[in-house]
Amino acid sequence: MQSKDELRQTAQRLRGGAHTMYGIKAAEQAKDVAMGLIGGMDKSTIIALYHPIGTEMDPRFLGRTLENVGFRTALPVVEGKDTPLQFRLWAEGDPLDKGPMGTVHPSSDAPAVDPDVLIIPLLAFDTDCYRLGWGGGYYDRTLAERFSGIKAFGMAYAAQFVEELPREKHDWPLHGVITEEGLVLPRKS
Q1: What domains are there in the chain, each with its CATH number?
Q2: Quick one: which residues bind substrate (predicted)?
Q3: pTM of the predicted model, to two decimals?
């Protein structure tokens, strides 16, 4: 099996190709899949999305739709190295500040919240819905330290699927992965 660093390079190329070929159309289709999953939840549910970097699948179509039907949305805030993420409310048109590593986040006057559902970017995912990220551990640390009971779903192009990823003790599986082709659920329950 390839190392995580080797897999990251391969996954980044695959995601880039999927983004080039399917970008906006896939993001709109994934939005429909996500709404089938989230749309029936109580409107007091806070959904944490992410602001896409580079070739990450764009969840802003989903965010707009969630807002239009009455959900509140939030974005993550990186507050420091080796710390869990914090979340602040954000809606389309609200100001964004620059963060570390190419991220953007809601301004510091946006209310801090504890979301009920996380939608998470990734480089690759496997049959058990483990994800390969950039290696900073922010989402794994967040799930472990702040939200062990939260529903966490990846959002990715179907082409980002791999049979199995290497796992370390700090890696957390997702409840599923939202793709343009449908919802991928973990093989193991």
Answers
A1: 4-184 (3.40.50.10420)
A2: 56
A3: 0.90
